[in-house]
Amino acid sequence: MDYDEDSATDEAYQTCVSYIVEHAPVERDDTVVDMGTGTGTVAVELASKCERVLGRDINDEWLRYARKKTAEKGLENVSFDHGSFQEPNVEEAVDVVVTSYALYMAYDEDGEEALRAAIEGISSLNPSHLVIADKMFFGPPESRGDYETLPQMGVVANLLADAGFTLTDVKIVSGSVGVLVATRTSG
Ligand SMILES: C[S@@+](CC[C@H](N)C(=O)[O-])C[C@H]1O[C@@H](n2cnc3c(N)ncnc32)[C@H](O)[C@@H]1O
């Protein structure tokens, strides 16, 4: 799929995926949700680090592609189903929710309140950690690149705090891309 080919050569994206794989607080017996899984890249990368990965997305074509890719790799602990930030469609107990390059779309569509609803949706799964690799502004306007409508990292951090999470790790990849690791502290 073109998306996989493009992201394979996207340095910032690859740095995010590597950071997730190396630093996300995922334990061997964890159940991890990859929200907005797309073609399942992050879900596949995390498969060997945990008990199960549940990929969720609103795009059924990409979910089909992710299933095919996972089957070809012989990964039996990764599954994909329809689900959204607002309605995750997850019944299992969840330890960690990871989301990569997907949350910013909520902000792009409907601003801070949509971002709040998306964060509340994944925090309703009661994970101990949220890992957000995404496009957001980490610096001053001159470091923004081509993007116009991205949230400031502080906005995302405040919404995470409102949902009961505290930032415990931040990896700034560029002025407009980075990884946030948030740990549940209340709720
Ligand atoms: C740019 S792709 C990123 C895919 C994947 N996470 C990755 O790292 O390659 C964004 C994905 O977010 C999904 N998405 C957008 N809005 C969503 C929502 N409200 N709930 C769940 N997924 C959503 C899209 O369908 C798409 O698959």
TrEMBL record:
Short name of one Pfam family: Methyltransf_31
SUPFAM superfamilies documented for this protein: S-adenosyl-L-methionine-dependent methyltransferases
GO BP: methylation
Domain Methyltransferase stretches: 29-116
InterPro entries to which the protein is assigned, alphabetical: Methyltranfer_dom, SAM-dependent_MTases_sf
GO MF annotations in UniProt: methyltransferase activity
Record's keyword terms, sorted: Methyltransferase, Transferase
Keyword Lipid biosynthesis (UniProt): no
PANTHER family tied to this protein: TRANS-ACONITATE 2-METHYLTRANSFERASE, TRANS-ACONITATE 2-METHYLTRANSFERASE-RELATED
The protein's name in its UniProt record: Protein-L-isoaspartate O-methyltransferase
Organism of origin: Haloferax mucosum ATCC BAA-1512
